[in-house]
Amino acid sequence: MKRECLNVYFVMGSVDCAGRDPKDVLQEAIYGGITFFQFREKGLGAKVGVEKKELALKLKEICESHAIPFIVNDDIDLALEVEADGVHIGQEDASFSEVEERLAPEMIIGVSCHTVEEARAAVNDGADYIGVGPMYFTTTKKDIKEVKGPQVIIQIRDAGLTVPLVGIGGISVENTAAVLEAGADGVAVISAISKAESVFEAAKEFSRCVGEKALFTTLSKNNH
Question: What would the 3-class secondary structure string for 93-112 be?
Fold first, then answer.
């Protein structure tokens, strides 16, 4: 998969939308410039069963019409049912081999990692990309691990791992540059986009931050 797909990676479920329609939130985020979408329907009040599948299908349709990859968090059955572009799994979810066995060969598999060891294991397994975090403190995920900060991305890159990588956890417009400078290809964002007063403007700001960093990197390379 192309690294630039991960530039502005939006993660969202119905409980993250501050009472707004998830379809409208996703649409606005796409207009604002997100490049990747993960459907993560978890937490108190999350949809289950048929309702969850119906929402997934509607969100997938929106992504498809804008050529945005649609990934399902953790739910392999749902990913297969709605023919998602892939799945994202955490360290406590199903094993990589189990997931890989069930998915079509072209489907994307992303893995959450918190250490160099976990990142190396994911790469050896064949992960298409990894999500590393939590970068900063966040209240969005209840099962939050110890905050690592961008330093862990530097360690992963120093270990020679070139896998496409996105930083996640407490990401804001203000700290995006630090995450990218550490070696991330993009930032994964939940509430800073989904709960923003203007979802469109928030996504646009993240897109601008990532674009500025990419431009700076290109200019730096050309000057050496």
Answer: CCCHHHHHHHCCCCCEEEEE
